[in-house]
Every structure is written in C-alpha cells, then in structure tokens.
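hey so i finally got around to running the thing on that chain from the lab meeting. sorry it took forever, my laptop kept dying and i had to restart like 3 times. anyway pasting the input first so we r on the same page abt which one it is
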Amino acid sequence: MSEAQWIDVDISTLSQDEAKAYEAYKVAQRAAAKLREEFEATMAQGYDIPQGMRLAFGYRFGKLSVALVPDDRKPKAKQPKLSLADYLARQQA
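ok and heres what got predicted. didnt touch it at all, straight out
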C-alpha cells in the first residue's frame, strides 16, 4: 500500500448529522487547543529561552516531552478543499 494521500474535505458537503457531529468535535478541539496553549505558555514562563529558540512540546503516548529547538516555524500552504465524494471519485479514475 502506498503512502496515504490526505485531502481537505469541503464541510458544506457533509450531511446534517455529519456536520453536527463535526461541529461538536471542533468545539471540543478548540477548547483543548486553548488549554494546551495556556499550559505551554505557563511552562515557557520562568525559563530563560535563548533568542531564536523555542520550547517544543510532545504528547505522544500520554507522556509530556519538551525540547529546545530553533524557532523557524513557517506558515503552512493551504490546499484546495474537495467533497469526500469528489476525492473518492478521483481515486477511482
């Protein structure tokens, strides 16, 4: 099997039930992201982080990990959105 190809799904193409469940998930995800950002900011306070560096956080397998890494983050390029039906049709073509 080849590497998975990810697409952005056009949310407006979801069924009403799918859209409702997705929105509930997104609300919870935004709350969790805010709490994560607050936690990480609190952790970074009180430590002298060298200029041009940042603390990176990892949460794999339920464990908290940190590393001091170069602060070279760049914005991600956006990909066009498709409906899931369009994506699946392209895969069968």
